[in-house]
């Protein structure tokens, strides 16, 4: 039975941007990553609903693998991009409102890492599930909800405050160097 609303073929592979977005446009790459994060969070919600009715079928397990692959690989790269390139120039500008948001976002990255470990463990239980798997626990559900809420608030702060401020500061050669470093760190050769 098909998973309602989940179309795995429409989900970009981890670490890959939307078609047409390359490292020569680093902020567009970061924006594309935010779009994928939102899709992965939505997919996580759909998995939760699906297993209530269908249990640990292959479609649910594959979707869980896709979510894990994304947040295991692309997520950490994205956070490192921000920590290396977006946050430092904003902290150097010393705008108190922006600095406060950047400090919170850095704390969010640590919290997301810890929360992801718990969410991942629940998804791994689904992937490894046998006949007797009884579904996600109430505690798993709370962890999924907390991770989703943290990430969504984080995206609002980045998209609404930090990225616009960074776009006004990071330009020209600094922007080119940012894209080149992001590409090199991922082992992309042109």
Features:
single chain; Four Helix Bundle (Hemerythrin (Met), subunit A); elongated; disordered N terminus
Report a brief summary of the structure:
The chain is mostly helical and 190 residues long.
Description:
The chain is mainly alpha-helical and 190 residues long. The protein has one domain: Four Helix Bundle (Hemerythrin (Met), subunit A) (Up-down Bundle). Helix content is 75%, strand content 0%. Helix 2 (58-93) packs antiparallel against helix 3 (96-127). It is elongated and about 55 Å long. Residues 1-19 have low confidence and may be disordered.
Determine the strand fraction and express it as a percent band.
Answer: under 5%
Gyration radius, in Å: 18 Å
> Count of helical segments?
5
The shape, in one word, is: elongated
Mind telling me which CATH architecture this is? Up-down Bundle
Give helix % range.
over 70%
According to CATH, the homologous superfamily is nmb1532 protein domain like
User: What is the number of strand segments?
Assistant: 0
Structural class by sheet pairing and helices = mainly alpha
Question: In terms of per-residue confidence, which ranges show pLDDT below 50 for 5 or more consecutive residues?
Answer: 1-19
Distance between the termini: 42 Å
Mean pLDDT: 89
What is the third-level CATH name, the topology?
Answer: Four Helix Bundle (Hemerythrin (Met), subunit A)
């Amino acid at each position: 039975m098909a998973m309602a609303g989940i179309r795995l073929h429409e989900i970009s592979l981890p670490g890959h941007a939307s078609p047409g977005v390359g490292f020569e446009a680093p902020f567009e790459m970061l924006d594309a990553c935010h779009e994928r994060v939102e899709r992965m969070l939505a997919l996580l919600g759909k998995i939760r609903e699906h297993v209530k009715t269908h249990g640990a079928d292959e479609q649910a397990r594959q979707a869980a693998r896709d979510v894990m692959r994304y947040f295991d690989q692309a997520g950490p790269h994205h956070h490192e991009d921000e920590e290396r390139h977006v946050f430092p120039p904003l902290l150097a500008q010393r705008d108190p409102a922006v600095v406060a948001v950047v400090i919170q976002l850095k704390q969010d990255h640590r919290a997301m890492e810890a929360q992801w470990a718990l969410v991942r463990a629940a998804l791994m239980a689904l992937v490894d599930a046998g006949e007797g798997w009884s579904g996600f626990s109430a505690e798993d559900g709370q962890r999924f909800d907390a991770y989703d809420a943290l990430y969504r608030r984080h995206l609002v702060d980045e998209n609404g405050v930090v990225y616009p401020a960074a776009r006004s500061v990071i330009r020209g050669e600094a922007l080119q160097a940012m894209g080149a470093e992001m590409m090199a760190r991922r082992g992309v050769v042109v």
